[in-house]
Amino acid sequence: MKYSISFRRALPHLILVAVAINARSQLTFSTLAGNPGGNNVDGYLDSARFSNPTGMATDSAGNIYVADTALHTIRKISPGGFVTTVAGLPGVSGSVDGTNSGARFNQPGGLAVDNAGNIFVADTGNHTIRRITPAGVVTTWAGQAGVPGPLDLLGTNAQFNFPQGVAVGSGGYVYVADYGNHSIRKITPGRSVSTFAGLSGGSGSADGNGNTARFYQPSGIAVDTNDTLYVADNANGTIRKISPVATVRWREPPATTAAVTAREPTFNFTNPRLSRSMRRVTCSWRII
User: Fold this and answer.
1) Distance from C-alpha of 145 to C-alpha of 80, rounded to nearest angstrom
2) Per the confidence metrics, is the pTM higher than 0.85?
3) Which of 9, 50, 67, 119 matches a 20 to 30 Å C-alpha distance to 279?
4) Nearest to residue 201, comparing CAs of 185, 180, 184?
């Protein structure tokens, strides 16, 4: 059978699409915990209730942690499916360091867990980054509660502006998608805060090194085993990649090109935001 050149070129892509469609048809969905309706109930599987859950992270033991944004709490789903409230008091916002229900959050968003089992929380409404130890002790790791700003300083002297995403890299470094400051921030294990990429207060879309790069309301952030960061650059509708030396680009440059040139991709994303206000709201968790 003869094929035209254009069809022969397209054939591998058609095969991939067919394989993808077939694989997708084999997916099985089930509800892990919670039920539609929204509320605050700790319990087993679908007897539990959530209200506006957003951020999620897992630890090495298989526990799933959930930022229950509307309830201002951090919840945990055990490997056996039992849901408990790890920290915060349901329905009560605030900014109080304490243990378990003695702590207070204000619309927590992104979560990340380090190798020691500490949970880092982007406490969005408080403009802070919180840490929860495995014992449930909550402290303000960085940022001034209720005071948005761009300051790069130590611990609670630093400032954030509606931080949304967090990720933990090797060595315990915490990376923050600082939504309101249009930048990516870095917190050392000693709690020193710096601007890793982007210029605080300067929005845009430019690839480059360090503060020459520009973001526009970054929200989600993830880190791989090589400490390469991936950012959902919300208002730009793009996914950005940041190397460990803070070089920002939207994709890998061509192998034959030494210099990085920013240009428009041939595909589009529509609001790739992982934050609370632009997501599809559900009150149950599902697994594939």
Assistant:
1) 35
2) no
3) 119
4) 180
pLDDT at residue 35 in the model = 80
How far CA 36 is from CA of 26, 41, 130, in Å, comes to 25, 12, 29
Query: Tokens 């509800």 belong to which residue?
Result: 31
Place of tokens 């992104």: 110
Predicted local distance difference test score (pLDDT) of residue 31: 82
CA distance 177 to 186: 9
Count of CB atoms within 10 A of residue 76's CB?
A: 18
Separation between Cα atoms, residue 129 and residue 191, nearest integer Å: 10
How far is 217 from 136, CA to CA, in rounded Å?
Answer: 31
The candidate with the shortest Cα–Cα distance to 67, out of 114, 124, 115, 118, is 124
Q: Rounded to whole angstroms, how far apart are CA atoms 105 and 193?
A: 21
The per-residue DSSP string of 244-269 comes to TT-EEESSPPPTT-SS------SS--
pLDDT tens, residue by residue, 110-122 = 999 999 999 999 9
170 secondary structure, DSSP code: G
Q: What whole-number distance in Å separates Cα of residue 94 and Cα of residue 12?
A: 55
Give residue 18's pLDDT band: very low, low, confident or very high (50, 70, 90): very low
Torsion of CA 104, 108, 111, 115, to 10 degrees: -10
| C-alpha span between 270 and 273 (Å, rounded) | 9
Query: Which residue type does 90 have?
Result: P
Lowest mean pLDDT among 27-41, 190-204, 237-251: 27-41
Q: Which among 245, 241, 222 has a CA at the least distance from the CA of 166?
A: 222
pLDDT computed for residue 14 by the predictor:
38
User: In whole angstroms, what separates CA 180 from the centre of its chain?
Assistant: 15
